[in-house]
Amino acid sequence: RHDLIATTRQALLWILSGTDVDLASARSTLSELPPEVRALDAYVLSCFGQLAYKEKRLSAAAELFRAAYEVAPRTETATMLAHTLTRWGRPDEALATLASHSIHDVPALHVYGMALIDRGEYREAWKALEKACGLLAEDPEAPSMRLGSIARRLSIIAEKVAVEEPAFVLDFLKRDMRHVAAFTNSCMSRFSF
To answer: What pLDDT, on the 0 to 100 scale, is given for residue 193?
Structure first.
């Protein structure tokens, strides 16, 4: 089991690096695992799913994340599957995937908000993304890249939300200054001067 953990961790590091050479190394390393492990271990299936996602093979990634989820139905796996489905243009399936989970962590809220945006449900998307920002504010170690990504999504839907519910945007701007700065920067970057 120790070798499996070390092998999958190394493969995941290569996948996260994302270079062609590292993705090939990850594929080679994961492919050397015994067939029964590749087919039945949720973490290994998830690694293969992340590899397929990085290679922009969304259909294969979704299939692998589904298989991993069937072995071990965890919120993290459901979130990766929902993210893949959203990127693949299947927001209804993404929302259905997340429906059986309590969505209280930043990645799940972020993906939930993305899927709602794709469905045109901007107010609900705003609520999910704002909640994710609130969770990030509670964690001083939270990566600013994640906040920037969520702020970009909020800036994209801000005008639509403000038309329907101006208080949503105004209340958001009264909160944590990190959010306001990231949101403002995202809004400004959408304009060319």
So the answer is: 44
Q: Is the pTM for the entire model greater than 0.90?
A: no
Task: Tell me the C-alpha to C-alpha distance, in Å, between residue 79 and each of 51, 61, 105, 110, 159.
Answer: 16, 13, 10, 9, 27
The mean pLDDT value for 139-147 works out to: 76
